[in-house]
TrEMBL record:
Belongs to the methylthiotransferase family. MiaB subfamily. Monomer. This is tRNA-2-methylthio-N(6)-dimethylallyladenosine synthase. Residues 179-415 form the Radical SAM core domain. The lineage of its organism: Bacteria, Pseudomonadati, Bacteroidota, Cytophagia, Cytophagales. The keyword Iron-sulfur applies.
Amino acid sequence: MDSLVTDLDFIDNRTPEQATAAASCDTKVTQETNTGRSRKLYIESYGCQMNFSDSEIVSSIMFKEGFDTTSQIELADVVFLNTCSIREKAEQTVRNRLGQINYFKKKKPGLVVGVLGCMAERLKKALLEEEKIVDLVVGPDAYRDLPNLINEVDGGQKAVNVLLSREETYADINPIRLNSNGVSAFVSIMRGCDNMCSFCVVPFTRGRERSRDAHSIVQEVQDLVTQGYKEVTLLGQNVDSYKWASEDGTEMVNFAQLLEKVALVHSELRVRFSTSHPKDITDEVLYTMKKYDNICKYIHLPAQSGNSRVLELMNRTYDRDWYINRVNAIRSILGEDCGISSDMISGFCTETEEEHQDTLSLMDYVQYDYAYMFFYSERPGTLAARKLEDDIPLETKKRRLAEVIDRQREHSYIRNQIAIGKVHKVLVENFSKKSDEYLSGRNDQNKVVIFPKKHYKKGDYVNVFVNDCSVGTLFGEAVD
Ligand code: SAH
Ligand code: SF4
Ligand code: F3S
């Protein structure tokens, strides 16, 4: 994972072929299944890990309908874009991509093009009118209906299903692990979000929060262990508010208890989770993390802003002091080494220069290991769009964001330097991007570590002595 994901560095002036070849850098593309099925499906996924995980559910549903997946768009009979609406740019990227896909559709007129996910939910039928090449619009809770919708399209119609559900968790669907390296897998534990942060479109695109049956989660994790997986990441917009009760009410499971159940599946299975909302993360969760060595000591705890007035306008329901209290609890229960990352929004409505400075000073206080940083992008229909004026000029938003990014680079470097001179247990995920003579994996704190491969391979746990670092990466040597 890159340590600095920002809004400032995306330029898309590639040809359709180049964009397809490079798509796996910005997006995730399905891998080949090749089981001899009659039709081929290509999915490109944008946005968050929830979307990547949903694409695996979609592939599973389509597989039963006679579709193999392909990683080559030219070979596809059906192309799905699983889309994101979080910022305007995310939607623009998809619209540009649809323009490029038009080129493939001209070469192969029977090609079916579907828009899935959050943009489908936000724009609904309007998307069919705005983007003529789209045949199919399907929201995140309607994937079980895909076989019927594909039939409608095969019959010459356009098809839409954007119904949201209060119950759907796809608990019984066995995802086809298409985005995975065979070592690490995502497991959805809940869907939707009830928080209504004023800037955020997710409650509108993903619907109400619901937690998945704890038994089906543990079962899925057990199956992954049997298949040889070494790491799971439990996914939800707000995992700390996970709450599931059995129908007869005799069993209640909160997030700390779920974490424990998952950690107990296998002591060599690493357990990660994302995202933690600062208002919900409890000491019980932190003590559970401490109790189990295989729960990774890393917490993604988005602050969004360091100023209490802005946080209130954002409807985050915590203030700066509360956030600092949670960070102090993490440091005192789990120690200084525990990795912490954040999301930050620069230039939210009415943010003053002093309030922006508060964000920088909060960053100085926490010293995040890394962060995802954005400038505010107004989303139609959200509380902020309805009630607040998007009054910070774009240049100011960008300048403040650049300052936040610079500060984060300093902190990432400082935090990485602390890792030098120590041995880290690294789970190997792949070859390094630059050379097959080097392996790449992550340590407990989610930092990428690169080292000469020797006799080690993907899926191994390797003790690596770290002797150097950059802003985004640790470098070292395996010690036997
Ligand atoms: N559930 C997570 C966030 C999911 S969205 C949480 O509560 O922390 C991922 C990130 O996108 C958010 O944390 C926020 O930093 C950013 N984001 C969301 N809406 C945005 C908007 N309108 N403009 C800019 N950034 C936004
Ligand atoms: Fe959006 Fe807030 Fe829900 Fe996160 S918690 S998904 S930012 S509404
Ligand atoms: Fe984007 Fe939807 Fe995820 S809006 S960030 S894909 S929940």
